């Protein structure tokens, strides 16, 4: 009989692959092989030759066997296959020997290769960093890199251990506040980095100009050193200045909303200022031309000042004759008394008496302020100190910070909520209120409550002034 021969029993026939048992078994075997290869990947692929090297390190730093990587220049070249602790010997403290399985392309590693155990992430993972040396001889398979070629690494937790608890809390607070300040401001940070990138080219030009031998950098450093030496005698005044600055910053912090509005108004103010300066450039050019024209007259100022000095020297003897003038003034007063007895002068004398009484009332109010608060001495001292460049007490640093609020430069029917003004401060035997008012939040108009018994600066004539006054006859 004719017919086809059965194909199920033929070797290599596709019909054999249609058996579900055979197909499932093949898939299961392939899956197991993949799982084994994936599991063994950290230890190196199976059946792949490796180059084994050992290294002595001061601290294994929690390296894991068959889990920690070995890197050269940041590229993975092997894994750690063993960690062995070594006891101390003599002056050598305890250390560890790390066994590494490297790729064969790293064979004959130079004997002066540096070994460092570095953190892989902040979560605690570590890896071995190899920095190839320049020696011609290499480490044989199974060879050991000595402990002298290992470099210790300070861990992040060890670095923070140098701070005490209070400092650690403050660092944590600074990091938290910095994170809050940068949260949601990624676009602003990107814009800042872009602007900083544009500033690198000018900074590079400035740096190149600074390193030129002809640049006056040495004189600049010397000038800074001289300025620092000049500030050294004023060191005792710095604590008081810093304390006053702290109070000022506290006031600025309390006025944060007004400060924010002021900062928001700075941008249009800057634009207006730029326009004004652009328009004022011709005027400034004319002023510069006038100054250059006056430069020729500056040599004439010295003889003029010398003549003024000679005039003062010549006028001093004349002032000594003032007592004789006083005698004539006395005779004039006698004549005035005679005129006062005249009935026709009664009305004028009554007005003069009222004037004297008014002046007496003013002086009676002024005398306690001057005696207790040194009102005139401090006022004139600060004014002259600011005009002539300062004195040893640094009173020219006294000032007032005015924090504006949007809308206050226009007429309004309502008083600003944060307005502070004290038009008539109390200056008497009980208190010296001017300059010692405490900062108060919100609206504060008039005298603050309570007595403001703050410090009062005591002034004295400069050395030699009294002697010159006595020589001139002005001081008894």
TrEMBL record:
It comes from the Bacteria. Residues 50-132 form the Mce/MlaD domain. The keyword 4Fe-4S does not apply. Keywords: Membrane, Transmembrane, Transmembrane helix. InterPro entries: Mce/MlaD (IPR003399), MlaD_Phospholipid_Transporter (IPR052336). Residues 439-476 are annotated as: Disordered. The chain crosses the membrane at residues 21-39. This is MlaD family protein. It comes from Paraconexibacter antarcticus.
